[in-house]
Every structure is written in structure tokens, then in C-alpha cells.
Write a structure and sequence with these properties.
Elements lengths: L5 E2 L1 H8 L20 E7 L22 E2 L6 E3 L6 E3 L2 E4 L5 E19 L7 E19 L11 E3 L1
Antiparallel strand pairs: 1-8, 2-4, 2-7, 3-7, 5-6, 6-9, 7-8
Length: 156
């Protein structure tokens, strides 16, 4: 089985339980404090999909086949404030994800975005892209425009 792009099923339930804070304006959490999120790269041979509930370690992560890759991924600096337009709620990280000076010899094709503030590292979504390898280079995952129809995370 391959990696499949999806919003994680457990994340949908987490939303109803007010588990995640994507911005500093969230009354269900400590006022003025957003959660910390991370993005971790996974090998093409991993099997991430909507059923994943959390980041559980390095099984299938590129750290098992690469050098200079930060185990557990990189921090997502911040998110645009969640917005609602025409019945679609959306948000996108404010900056691209960069993994500098990495060598990853085994093909990788996805990243898992997860909440690093929560002890159980609750999964948010699996993002897929074309399989690639890299030698002593920077992997940059560019973010789309933060708008309805293009944002990275959208709920209709």
C-alpha cells in the first residue's frame, strides 16, 4: 500500500473536542497561545493515510535512510489565522517547510503534519507529492496560497 493524501480521521474528531489551536485566538486554549506543529517526511514505502492517528516515531520516516534529516521533522513556524469563506474553513502555514543539507537515498513522497504540543503527537494530515531522492541538498515544500480552494488545510 502507498501513502495517500488525506485529512486524518482522528483530526476530524479532535476538532469536535477542541484539541488543536492553529492560532492565538482560540478560546478553548490558553489565550494567546497557538499549538506547535511539525512536518515529518516519509518514505514512498510507508503506508500513511487517513487512518493514521499520531506521529509515533521513525518507522517509515526518512531518518531511517538519510543523513542530516531532523528526526521527527521540522517545526512549522506558524499558521495563517483560520478563515471561513463561502462555507469553507481553511488555513495554511505562513512559510514553506525546509529540510536543509539532507541526503535521502530512498524515495520519499509525503509528509505528515502533526501537533507537537500534545504528548500523543496527534496527526492532522498526510500531504503527498511526487517521489524523489536528494543528495546534499535542501528539500523545500512550498505552501499554496491561503484562500478557499487553494489552502493546504480545508474543511467544507
Amino acid at each position: 500500500m502507498a501513502n495517500t493524501q488525506a485529512i486524518c480521521n482522528s483530526f476530524k474528531q479532535d476538532l469536535l473536542n477542541a484539541v488543536h489551536a492553529f492560532s492565538t485566538n482560540n478560546p478553548a486554549h490558553t489565550a494567546g497561545v497557538a499549538d506547535s506543529f511539525k512536518a515529518a517526511l516519509f518514505l514512498q514505502s510507508a503506508t500513511l493515510d487517513a487512518a493514521i492517528t499520531s506521529y509515533t516515531g521513525t518507522a517509515g520516516e526518512v531518518s531511517s535512510s538519510g543523513t542530516n534529516y531532523p528526526t521527527a521533522g521540522v517545526a512549522i513556524a506558524s499558521w495563517n489565522a483560520p478563515t471561513l469563506t463561502g462555507g469553507v474553513a481553511f488555513t495554511t502555514p505562513t512559510a514553506s517547510f525546509e529540510f536543509p543539507n539532507v541526503t535521502i537515498a530512498t524515495p520519499f513522497d509525503c509528509c505528515l503534519i502533526y501537533n507537537n504540543t500534545i504528548a500523543s503527537k496527534n496527526a492532522v494530515m498526510v500531504c503527498t507529492f511526487g517521489a524523489q531522492t536528494i543528495t546534499a541538498g535542501t528539500v523545500t515544500l512550498s505552501m499554496p496560497t491561503n484562500a478557499s480552494g487553494t489552502a493546504l488545510l480545508q474543511l467544507a
